[in-house]
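ARCHIVE CARD
CATEGORY: sequence design from structure
SOURCE FIELD: tokenized fold
FIELD CONTENT:
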């Protein structure tokens, strides 16, 4: 038997023979891609799903359905979707996905208008090919509570969106028991407008977003913690790699944390960003590796145990910061910035900046090594700096800068003059190479400066006995060693606290490049008695000024 449509198959009044095969030419009309071969299963009581199981309108007894013959992937057109965007295909997508309880491939052939298609709790499903145009709602949404979606893959799809293309939300706070796992978006093209988000994963773990192209005004990828009155779920262990983000500000935030929990275990690797912003906040164990930031920048706010390595940054706009490390949201701790290339292309401004904004937070245990900084011009009227430590820092400790190369710029390493030196501790910079090019008479008066600074935390002197002498003398001395610097440091004393009478004074004197002596001194013109203690911050500043070659 031959039928022109699924509707004609349903309305057929003839009772088929068991295992009889018929041919349907189309779902709505012949040739629309929704047809196929069916066989009559006389003993089946399966429910009609509008695609692979068709129950006749006229009862054939209690049982009996037409079942579609196929071998591998499922075509959404089999469930009534039209591939010309002439109708809302959401119901067809929902029916097709519900038919795949154990996984499989859902094939898209054409252009499909959808809105808020909910992906059920299924395993290893791949949605492949086609063009998807979400209407007033999100394209694909998966919300999990106690159910798990494992291995869902969106492959080779073009999303033309003014709303979010793919959303995954996990509302269960207990990672060990349930959640959304293993979402894979690969080889897709996102054409996004009106602030649309390409992929939004909230509280979803072990995802891969690879080899996609995001052409958008807002977020290409948004990975957030879920935050509500009843639950908080922290995303973990996902990979964003080999994607392209382009046009304007392609996304305001790639990874954004919107709760007090921290993102953990993410890898952002091998991506290309054009005129874009990459922003990441409140996170642990993050790897930012081998990306190409073309006229783009990276902002990190509050990060633990992470690495920025092998990336290329350049800028075409003056004042654009290439890498901004902040401790506004929380501390920055155990961060490595190694083997990156920063190119200002002659545009004035700072390339790498450490800034604060929250005095309660610290930037600590920072290694900056093996990076290359290319300014393009060394001019006092067009200052280009390599690394800058901003005056807003609440505290910066245990910083090592080494084996760095700086080419043709005004300043290699700079500590803002307004930065309180007392918030700095154990700051070491060495093995710095600086190169100036194409110098002329107008720039011979400029200097490139590099700050090398070490703070001795506290000098503390206590007199063991009562002092009663009328002569001017050093009544107590203490020698302290420090790490030798590239030049003899300048000593500054800050925050002196003493319970001695005012005719006692405190001093610090450099004995050599590597040791300093603290002295408690009595003034001979004052009464000769007193006992107490004194403490102070002693700053050793070994700033080195390098004249242009």
């Amino acid at each position: 038997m031959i039928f022109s449509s699924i509707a004609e198959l349903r309305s057929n009044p003839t009772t088929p023979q068991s295992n009889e095969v018929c041919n349907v030419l189309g779902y709505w009309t012949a040739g629309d891609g929704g047809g196929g071969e069916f066989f009559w299963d006389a003993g089946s009581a399966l429910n009609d799903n509008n695609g692979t199981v068709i129950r006749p309108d006229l009862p054939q007894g209690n049982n009996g359905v037409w079942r579609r013959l196929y071998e591998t992937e499922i075509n959404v057109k089999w469930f009534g979707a039209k591939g010309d965007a002439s109708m809302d295909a959401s119901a067809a997508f929902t029916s097709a996905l519900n038919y795949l309880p154990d996984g499989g491939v859902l094939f898209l052939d054409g252009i499909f208008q959808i809105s808020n298609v909910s992906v059920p709790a299924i395993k290893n499903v791949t949605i492949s090919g086609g063009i998807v145009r979400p209407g007033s709602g999100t394209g694909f949404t998966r919300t999990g509570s106690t159910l798990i979606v494992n291995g869902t893959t969106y492959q080779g799809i073009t999303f033309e969106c003014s709303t979010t293309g793919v959303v995954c939300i996990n509302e269960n706070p207990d990672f060990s028991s349930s959640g959304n796992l293993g979402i894979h978006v690969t080889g897709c093209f996102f054409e996004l407008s009106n602030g649309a988000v390409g992929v939004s994963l909230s509280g979803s773990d072990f995802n891969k977003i690879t080899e996609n192209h995001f052409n958008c005004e807002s977020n290409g990828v948004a990975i957030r913690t879920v935050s509500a009155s009843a639950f908080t779920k922290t995303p973990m262990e996902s990979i964003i790699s080999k994607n392209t983000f382009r046009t304007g500000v392609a996304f305001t935030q790639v990874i954004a944390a919107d709760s007090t929990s921290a993102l953990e275990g993410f890898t952002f690797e091998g991506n290309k960003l054009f005129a874009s912003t990459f922003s990441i906040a409140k996170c642990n164990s993050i790897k930012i590796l081998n990306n190409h930031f073309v006229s783009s920048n990276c902002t990190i706010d509050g990060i633990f145990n992470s690495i920025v390595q092998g990336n290329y940054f350049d800028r075409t706009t003056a004042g654009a910061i290439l890498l901004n490390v902040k401790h506004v949201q929380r501390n920055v701790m155990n961060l490595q910035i190694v083997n990156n290339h920063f190119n200002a292309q002659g545009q004035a401004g700072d390339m790498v900046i450490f800034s604060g904004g929250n005095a309660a937070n610290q930037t600590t245990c920072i290694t900056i090594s093996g990076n290359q900084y290319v300014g393009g011009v060394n001019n006092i009227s067009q200052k280009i700096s390599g690394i800058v430590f901003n005056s807003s820092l609440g505290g910066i400790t245990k910083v090592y800068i080494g084996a760095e190369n700086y080419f043709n710029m005004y300043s290699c390493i700079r500590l803002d003059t307004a930065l309180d030196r007392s918030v700095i501790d154990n700051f070491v910079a060495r093995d710095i190479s600086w190169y100036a090019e194409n110098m002329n008479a107008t720039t011979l008066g400029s200097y490139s400066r590099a700050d090398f600074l070490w703070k001795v935390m506290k000098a503390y002197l206590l007199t063991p006995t009562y002092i009663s002498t009328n002569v001017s003398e050093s009544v107590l001395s203490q020698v302290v060693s420090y790490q030798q610097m590239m030049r003899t440091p300048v000593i500054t004393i800050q925050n002196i606290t003493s319970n001695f009478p005012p005719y006692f004074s405190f001093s610090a004197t450099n004995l050599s490049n590597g040791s300093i002596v603290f002295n408690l001194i009595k003034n001979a013109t004052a009464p000769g008695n007193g006992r107490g203690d004194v403490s102070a911050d002693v700053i050793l500043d070994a700033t080195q000024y390098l004249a242009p070659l």
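CARD ANNOTATION: The first strand starts at residue 2 and ends at 3. Helices lie at 6-10, 90-98.
SHELF: design records, drawer C
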